[in-house]
Amino acid sequence: MLDTLSYTDVPGDRSDHEITVYALSTCGFCKRAMAFLNARGVAYRYVYMDHVPLETKNEAKKALKERYKSDVAFPFAVIDGEKPLVGFIELDWVKTLGL
Amino acid sequence: MAPKSFDQTMTFASMVAKKQGWALNPDADFTKDLVEGLATNWNRYGYFLCPCRDSDGSREADAKIICPCAPSWKDVEELGHCFCALYLDPVFAASGKEPRSIPDRRSQF
C-alpha cells in the first residue's frame, strides 16, 4: 500500500542508506529533519502526508503502524525499509545514519 | 470561513502565549514556519490544527490537537515546550536549550 504513494526523490552524495521520510508540509520538526539530511548531502525520498487524500492517508498510517510496530508521528522516517525513526531528535538521526 | 493571513495567525499565537504565560519559540525562522503551518491548516480545515499533527478528518476527531492542544499545558510544564514547540516555558526559552520532538500525549487527555 505504501508503494502507491507519490514520493519525491531528493538526490545526495550519500546514499548508503535507503531513507523514506513521511512528513507534514506544515511541521517545523519535519522541515528541520529534511534540512538536516540536505545539509549532509544524504539522498532520501519523502511524501507530505497532509497532501494525501484522507482515505489513502489513513490506510498508509495504519500500514506504517503495523509494519514498524510504532505509533505514527511526524516526521516518521524509515531506514533501509526496517528501522523507524519517529520525530526529529538530531542525535538519534546522527547515530542511526552513522553521520 | 474567512481565510487567515500570516499576521492574523501570529496575533492568535501571541495572544495564546500571553494569556498562558508562555513564550513563543525564540527561533524566529522556526516560529515563522509553524505560524505559516497554522495559517495553512486554518485555511485548509477551518480551525487551527497543530501544524505538527495530522488531521483525522473532522473538527470532532481533531478536537484534542487544535491549538493550543490538550496536552500543551502539561507538555510546557513538564517538558519545557508544547508538541510542535511553538510555545515554550519562559524558563526553558531563556535557557537556550533547543526544543526537540516529544511524545504525543493526546491520548492521556
Summary, kept brief:
The complex is a heterodimer of chains A (99) and B (109). By secondary structure, chain A is an alpha+beta fold.
Give a topology summary.
The complex is a heterodimer of chains A (99) and B (109).
Chain A: E1 8-10, E2 19-23, H1 28-39, E3 44-48, H2 54-68, E4 76-79, E5 83-86, H3 90-97
Parallel strand pairs in A: 2-3
Antiparallel strand pairs in A: 1-3, 2-4, 4-5
Chain B: H1 6-20, E1 23-24, H2 28-45, H3 72-79, E2 87-88, H4 90-95
Antiparallel strand pairs in B: 1-2
Task: Write a structural description.
The complex is a heterodimer of chains A (99) and B (109). With 99 residues, chain A is an alpha+beta fold. Chain A has a single domain, classed as Glutaredoxin (3-Layer(aba) Sandwich), CATH 3.40.30.10. Helix content of chain A is 35%, strand content 21%. Chain A is built from three helices and five strands, in the order ββαβαββα. In chain A, β4 (76-79) and β5 form a beta hairpin. Chain A starts with 7 loop residues before the first strand and ends with a helix. The mean pLDDT of chain A is 97. In chain B, α1 crosses α2 (28-45). In chain B, strands 1-2 form a two-stranded antiparallel sheet. Chain B has one domain: Ferredoxin thioredoxin reductase catalytic beta subunit (Ferredoxin Thioredoxin Reductase, Alpha-Beta Complex), CATH 3.90.460.10. Classes of the chains: A alpha+beta (99), B mainly alpha (109). Chain A binds chain B through residues 24-32, 49-50, 54, 57-58, 61, 71, 73-74, 86-90, and chain B through 30, 33-34, 36-38, 40-41, 44, 51-57, 84-86, 100-102, 104.
